[in-house]
Structure formats: structure tokens, C-alpha cells
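Archive entry. Fields below.
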Amino acid sequence: MTDKLLQISNLDIVLPEGSERDLAVKDLNIDLSPGETLCIVGESGSGKSLTARALMGLLPAPHVRVEKGTISFCGEDLTKASEPRMRQIRGSEISMIFQEPMTALNPVMTIGVQIDEVFRYHADMSKSERRQRAIELLEDVQLPDPKQIVAAYPHELSGGQRQRAMIAMALALEPKILIADEPTTALDVTTQAQILKLISEMQTIHKSGVLFITHDFGVVADIADRVVVMQYGNVVETGTVDKVLNKPEHPYTKALIASVPSLVPRAPRSRSDQVVLSGDKIQKKFGGGKSLFGLGKPNRFVHAVKDVTLDLRRGETLGVVGESGSGKSTLARCIIRLLDSDSGNIMLDDVDIRALNRAEMRPLRTKIQMVFQDPFASLNPRIKVGQIISQGPIIQGQSKEKAESRARELLDIVGLDERAFNRYPHEFSGGQRQRIGIARALALDPEILVADEPVSALDVSIQAQILELLDQIRESMNLSMVFITHDLRVAAQVCDRLAVMRYGEIVETGATGKIFENPQHSYTKDLLAAVPGQKWDRKVAG
Amino acid sequence: MADFWKRFSRNRQAVLGLIILCVVIFVAAIANIIYPGDPFLYSKFPLSAPGENGFLLGSDSIGRDVASGIAHGAKTSLLIGLIATLAAVFIGIIFGAFAGYYGGIVDDILMRVTEVFQTIPSFIFAILLVAIMKPSIESVVIAITVVSWPAVARLVRGEFLGLKNREFVQACHTLGMSDIRIMLAEILPNCLSPIIVIGSLMVATAILIESGLAFLGLGDPNVMSWGFIISDGRSMLRVAWWICTFPGIAILITVLAINLVGEGLNDALNPRLRERN
Amino acid sequence: MNRSSKILRYVSRRLIQGIPIILAIVVLNFFLLNLAEGDAVDVLAGEAGSATPEYMEEMRKKFGLDKPLPVQLAVYLKNVIQLDLGYSFRHDMQVTELIIDRFWPTLILMVSTILLAVGFGILLGLFAAINLNTWKDSVVSVFALITYATPLFWVGLMMIILFSIKNDWFPTSGMENSAMFYEGFERVKDIAHHLVLPTITLSLFYLALYTRMMRASMLEQYGQDYVITARAKGVSERRITFVHVLRNALLPVVTMAGVQVGALIGGSVIVESVFAWPGLGMLAFESLFARDLNLLLGIFLLSSALVVAVNLVVDVVYCFLDPRIEVN
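PREDICTED_STRUCTURE:
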């Protein structure tokens, strides 16, 4: 097998004592050929990232280390290679790009210097040659005005640009292997599509083998030649992308794939015409303003929500979709009166809640509640679960006993054991905490639920469970829901109608099915086109 | 709690600090028993070396017992350090909480005030305050409080600023909870750890400031303190090294012990804050 | 991306921001004056009453003490702006003149202390971080821990016992041996000789502070993602430490150095009074004994202004170290 670039055999990676399990990676066998893209897929904690680190000889020593097995790179066993030899290989023969391009770049060094380092350590080139080469590389990754970017600092670039610069750096010496560790997870979907395209173009040019680590099956479908599925440090399935995605054998792979929300929108439900919530010309600006003592502070405004008009009917789910910075979360917070909008009106039944002060708003809080994004930040770590759920009704004047017995019921409704009542939030997993957050919102028997990216911080299998729970609750309690999401797959499965937001404006609204079939606005078209894994979806559907 | 103690006791330096601190507190508590009577009382044996004439740590120029002074001084130092710190923490929490939570004008004013406090040399400010108010226990406590609270206010403000936009606080708003309750019951418990840590370190700083003031002659003239003994023994440096040396060692180990405990608290309390990742 | 003009704008903005701070301190001074027993003129004249009654009457008029408080404040502000801080009868000199006279010795002491404390602090912290968890690290850490807990005046006295009384290596007091009438280089040498003990005494605490900070800052930076990126590029550990990590680790230390200048001036009161170093601190100590509150207030004002100036310098240095400055 000399044509293989990489051959990992029987690799075990140990975790420090007292960890959840002994081995981060157990008996791993994978190989990679030139020009091939191998995707390692798995949920958090599957050991996929540590596998990549092991390859680079960058495991967080001394606690985490390779216990046994070989990593054969062009015939050389990297587990036995000396540190100087590894340094030679890193950056020139095997290079790597990371998830978060902001923290992965040194904030006080220019992009040019950081690219230059690769040449300094691996190539014999003069200073001007190196600079020339850096500019060419930045050109290759399609960055505008490379001469300026060479002299720029990371904070002066956008997220997508930083990731392009990282790729330029990684490809500087045409490495044989490129390891990409979730390189698009932190990026918006349209940027993700561009970066994925760039990686595959670069691969075609350089004939590198790409080891792509991801949790996203859509991405896998778009770029992989072969797939390795990992769970708890074990490889549960390997095979060609066609085989793994379309004819999965292992139950875990099947379950994972079944959890991926389909891009084909769910069948529209019969809808009521009764409007329960409507917003008219909602405006919200941030920044600037009061600067009594702060001399010389620049008055910069961000127009986060511009003239947004929308309505929500009884029993329906309205999706608000958009990329980061589109103002969708701000809109949600204006609707629920966490933020005061600048103008417009927000009608809840017959009351304009925008005009209400806090005391006037308090009794109306029972009608509209919120589910938050981050299951870790949305529960107070110092307060017991039972109290978290029951304190809403108590504030609203219910007796303690009644509120607490309702809280126990709610724990059951959201699928948690009653014993959770006396525990603290940190004793629960992300998915369980999200259930607690839902229970808290339901405790006030609201008519409307505003859900702000409720599943985006969760693994795909947990995500499916939470979405199902929300669906059940919506049906049984006849809730109307405003569902904020950046994920069009989720939106397709959850929402009856969609509002697409960009730069604080709604650019298009309509029934979910209609928008997916026949988007009108060019931005909606871009957004839909950027969703990874579309071909695969069509194949599964057709 | 048991969990906290386990983490704290894993830090051997911190445990050592705690033991030393307990000894100092013990000595301060029994000062009146082991050295009854006025520590200012002089004897007919001036400048006795340590061990001579029954003076464990020697006597000063008019025959006062250095060991007795140190024991009584421990009371003064600990008391002033503790009271000044409690007062500073109390004021700091109130200002910091309001500034961080409400932002706006309170925050603007507070930030300007702390900027001023960061700029003025705080020790000179403390000297000035005591000099104007006339040296006494109260004036020393007030001076130390005045120069110490801005640090707490800044810390608390930062914590509140970071926590008030956390989703769990937003959730409280959507439930209709009042601001005071959110501040006291929801946010404050989440920033107690850093407050405890900075508070413990401030006790150490307060003791250092107090001894410095006493050294400059700004201590309460009716109360024995470590700084006073040293300041008084200065002129005898050539003939009686012990007068200055032992009280200094007392300050050193007390402050060191408190610092060690403070760091131990920091290590033991902080993982909980970082745990969310 | 014109950085130099941005820095210029930033510096001038900070300069303007310094003005209200100074103003606030002047106002604070005014209220402290009012807090003291008797009226301001009693304080101004010194409590021993060494001023003539005629002069005090004149001063009362000058300060408008018969007028309401805001007017008094305005008068006080006007005087301060004209650098008129009153007269010290103890020293028989204008306060402003007196302070400027005593400013230079303090400046010498401060500069040598800052160089020693920051310079060695950074080196020691770096050294400890590189040798993490070895005996070298432990020695540095224990040293820092102990000096961090030691009162300045006690260090000074112990230094005198050890290096002046037991071994006659360094002089116990003063800035120079004026009886010898040294000139030129000889004089510099003499001052340097006198400078050693005060500088070491004043530096020790801050040396410990910067050592601890530098060590912690280095360790924090070692944990950052960009270090892994650099390793993944094959950059040597040496370069990672000295180029990537060091520069980032210096940022908080530099900020701290600026913040600590105020505390350093406070420390100089103690150190100067221990070593009879004829600077502002010594002057403050003397005025304390003479109960010359007005002089003390003047010293307070000037030292605050000094801190504002030093902070400005630190800000400029920071600008060059951290490219992100314009974002904030």
C-alpha cells in the first residue's frame, strides 16, 4: 500500500485519569490517498478532533497521549518521529486549519508575518521572495487586495477572510495532507459554501489528501469521497460517501442520518386566521447616544432592526431566518420586551406592548415566553432546577405549593425525572438543560413561545429530540411560536411560514414550502443555494 | 461545601496560610491573657536583647515589651484590615452593582470616579485623609476604605456587566422579576467568588497600609500597632535591631498567610465559574 | 490604514481625557482643604501660626472666604491654574517652587525603580514560565510571594541593618555626600551609590508584582489557540515563546505598570523617609510632622499630575504593542 499517503493502524489515545472514559480514541484504523477527501464525522466527544491532533503530534501532552498503534505517513511512523522531525513535517507536509479563525491567528502579528513564518521554517527563500509568495497565496485564496491584507492584523478581516488567510497559510508549501478541523462551523452558511468550494479547488490544484473533520452531514455529502463515522472514540462505520450516507449499516450512523432535518419542508398544516401577535414597523438602533462625560466617543449607530412588520397566527410557527448580524435575535428580544424598540408597535392581542412600562408589562408576561439558545448560560448555576421553573408563576402571584407541583408536572412533560427538581443545572447535559429551559417557559402557560436558536448549540441527535419535544408541546398546548434560526434545514422542518432577514430588514416572507420552492429575493436564493448537502437531499427524497 | 474544602485543601500553600492565619488570630485573641495590662507600660529594663530580663523578643528604648506589643498589635492590624475591607466591599458592591446593571449615567460617573482613584496615589491620599481627620482608629479605617472601595466597585461592575446579558438573567426579565431581586438573588450569588477572593487579598493590603500609616506616625496614639513599634524603634536601629525586626516579621507572615489563603480561595472557587465549557 | 495618524488621534484623545481627571483632583483637594479644622487660611498658614495676622487677613480676602463655597472653589481653581499653591512658612518658600525643587530626586528614584521592577519582573516572570514546575520556577515564585507580603519600610530598615550597619557598603541616608563637593562624573557616581538601597527597597514589592503577573500572563497565553496554530506550522518552541507568546503576554503587564505608578509614588513617601532621600516623599513626611497641610495637598496634586503624564506615556507604548487599540 505504498500509494497511501497516510495509514493509521490500531491507534489508541489515552485520556488523563478521572476522565469520562479511559481512551479518547480506541483501535482507530483509517487511511488517506492523494487527492482524496476523507471526512471524519461524529458528535462532540467522539474523539474526532484528538485524532487530528495526534496526526500532527500536537496532543495536549503529557495528559493525553498515543498509547499504541502507528501513524504511517508515506512509510514513516509519526508516533516514533522525533520532535525536530515532526516540526519539519508540520506546516510543510501536513498542515492544519481550525474552527475559530479569530483565536487561531495571533492578534498582534500581521497576516503577512504569520504566513511568512511557514517559509522561514521550511523553505530557503529570500525575504522579498517570501513576501511575493505570500501575496500570491492570498491571491490564490481569492482575497481582495492581497497587498493590503499582507499588512493587516487579524481583527481587521472578516471571519471568512480570516479563514481564507488560514487556508493560504496551510497551503503555502503545498502539503501532502491538509487537516481541516471543523473549518466552517463558526462561519455563516453563505461563507461556508465559499470556503468549502475554495478547499476543494485548492485540493484539485495541489492534489493533497484532505482529512476533514465535521459534525455536519450536509457538508460531508458535498465534499467527502470517503467517510469515517466515530462515536465515543470508536469507528462505527467507514465507507464511500455514497455507501455511508445512502446505505448506512450501523444503527448509530442510521440514527445520526435520520436526525438530520430534511431540506424538504414538512407538509403545511391547516392554519387559523386569528392573529395573536403582530409587529408594525419595528425599529431598533444600537450605540451612540448619551456621551455626557465620555469625551470624544464616536457616535456609531447600528441599525439592528429596520421597519420590520410581521404577524403570527394562532397555532402557527413563524420562522425568522438569517445569518449572524441579520438582527433576528434583536427582533426576538424586541418582541418579548427584553429590549426596548425605538418605534413602531407590537400588538399582543389588542394591546400595544411596546408602549407599556415594566410594571404594566408584568401581567402580560404570562402570555409570551422565551426559550434561549445557550443551554449553559440560560440557567442560573446557583439556583435549583425546581426553583428555576417555579419562580415565574410565584412572581405572577401563584402560591408556592401550586407552582412547585406544576413544576414537577412540567419536568415530566419535558421528559425529565422528577428528581431533577432538587438538583442544580450543572448536573445536567446540554439537551437536558434545554428541556429545563423549555419547562421554565411553559410554567406560565404562555400562548406564544419565542424560541431563539433553541437547538443550535446541540448535537444533531439531541437537536432532533428537542425539536420533537417542541413540536409535541406546540400541538398539545396549541402554542404559537416565533422560531429564530440560522439553519434552513431546521426551519424547513419546524416552521409553517418564514421571514428571511438581512441587515435588519425582512427581505421576504411566505409559506415555508413556497419559499423553498420558489424564492423571490436574490438573498433568499443565495441562502438556499448555500445550504450544504442539497444533492444528497434530492437523492434521498427522489 | 465539602467539595469546596476538598479543592481548597488540595492547595498545600493555602492550607499552610490558613494555619498561620489561625495562629495569628489566636495570638490576637489571647493577647490580654498572655500579656495582661497596657502594652504601652514601660519597665526599668530598656533595650534588653531578646531573652534578657524575661523579654521574649527584647524591649524597646523605654523598656516596653516588644512581644507584648506584637500580640496586642495583631489585634489592631486584623481588626482594621477586616473592618476596612468589609466597608470597602460593601460600598464597592453597591456602586459596582448599580453601575454594571443599569449602565448609563451611574456607570459613567462611577467610571470617572474610579479613573480618578486609579490616578491619584492612594497611599498619599490615605495619608492626607488621616492627617486631616487626626490620627485615630476610625480615621485610619475610613482612609483605607476610601482608597480601597473603587477596586471592588470595578470588579463588581465588570461581573454585573458580563452577567446581566446572560440568558438566565434575560429569562428572569421575561418572567417579570424585579430589578432588585435580579441583582440580589440572581446575579450577585454568581459573582461572590471573585468578591471573596479580592476581599481576602484586600485584608492583606489594608494591613500593609495600616502599618505604613502607623510607621509615618499616623496610627492611633492610644492603640498599639506593629507599624508604631517599628517607627519607634527606628532611631535605635544601630543598638537594638530586634525592635524593628520582629514586628516586621509579624506583618510579613500575617500578610503572606492571608495572600496564600486568598489564592487558595481563588483556585478553589474559580473552577465553578469556568465549568460551563 | 494610516496607523501613525490613528495613534496621534488616540494620544490627543487621551490627553484631553486627562484634563477632567486633573480637574477632579483639584476639586477634591479643595474639599479636603475645607474638611480640615479651621478655615482654609488656618491650614494654609500652617497650624503653628507662624504666619502674621496681616498675611492671614490678606489671604482670607484673596481666597474669598467670606463668599459662598462655589465662589471659593472658583478662586481656588484660578489659583491652581496659575500654579499658585500658596506659601509654606515652614520652608519660607512658595509651595510650587518648593515642590519643583524636590521633584528631581523623586524622579531619579522613580525612574530607576520602574526600570528595575518592570525589567527584572518581566525577566523573572518569563524565566519562571519557561521553567514551569521546576525548582527554578518554585524559587522565583516563593521569592515573589514573600516580597509581595513585606512592608516597604521594614525592608528599608533591614537593608540598613544589613548593608550599612553590619557591613558598611552603602550610605544609610541622603542623596549625596554634600560635604565632599563632588562634581561631574564623581557626583553621578556618588548619587548612584546613595541610590542603590532606596531603589532596591522600593522595587522589591513591584518586582514581585510584575513577576507574578508576567508568569500568569505567559501561562495564559500559552493556552491560546494561536499557539497551536504556530506549532502546526512547524514554528520552533523558541520562537513561539519569544515572538508569539511574549508580545501578547506583555500587554497586561504594561497596562499594570501604568496603573501602579500612583502606588509607587505612595511607596516613595515611605522609602524616602526611611533613607532621608530629599524628594517629594520626604517633603511630604516633613510636612506631616510640621502639620503643613497645604504643602501636603500641593504634593498630592503634583504627584497625581505626574501619574496622568506617565499613564499617557504608557498608553502610547501600548499603542505600539497592540494593533487592536483603535477598535476599543
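CURATOR_NOTE: The interface with chain A takes residues 1, 13, 16-17, 20, 224-226, 228-236, 239, 243-244, 247-248, 251, 321-324, 327 of chain C (CB under 8 Å).
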